[in-house]
Amino acid sequence: MAEQYYEGIGRRKSASARVRIMSGSGEFVVNGKKVDDYFPRFGDLDIILSPLTDAGSKGSVDVSVIVQGGGITGQVGAVRMGLARALVKMNPDVDRAMRHGGHLTRDPRVKERKKPGLKRARKAPTYTKR
Q1: What is the CATH number of the domain that holds 30?
Q2: Tens of pLDDT along 103-123?
Q3: Domain contains 105
């Protein structure tokens, strides 16, 4: 019989992550790779593991993640949010710690659209007097 798992969906910018956690030895897999191989950038691992640290579950749960879309920063934020949601489903007592750490609030910042007559969203062409 398959072991019970808890699932959480996290989103950030255009990235989406499906996170499944179950009790285990602390294995963390993202898209079939170890988490430190998938996210090698300095600081990303700390952001991703912060919900586990706040819940006190580091090393006691196995985490499996499927993440797609967006860039590295968006994927890191999506995994963090999905992990926090899954931890709350697994143990509702950690809800307060997740909210206090800001793990359950979706970051609404996305890239602003380009406006006509401008080079980017807000950058105007250089003004020339003559």
Answers
A1: 3.30.230.10
A2: 999 999 999 999 999 999 999
A3: no
Other beta carbons within 10 angstroms of residue 62's beta carbon come to 16
Instruction: Write the CB contacts of 66 (distance below 8 Å, at least 6 apart in sequence).
Output: 17, 18, 31
Segments of the chain assigned E as strands: 6-12, 15-23, 28-30, 33-34, 61-68
Domain that holds residue 30: 6-100
Asked whether the beta carbons of 31 and 66 are under 8 A apart, the reply is: yes
Number of structural domains the chain divides into: 1
**Domain for residue 106, yes or no?**
no
Cβ-based neighbours of 68, under 8 Å, separated by 6 or more: 15, 16, 17
Considering the entire predicted model, what is its pTM?
0.89
Distance CA 100, CA 107 (A): 15
53 is a domain residue: yes
Q: How far apart are CA 11 and CA 74, in angstroms?
A: 8
Contact 10, 85 (CB under 8 A): yes
User: Would you say residue 111 lies in a domain?
Assistant: no
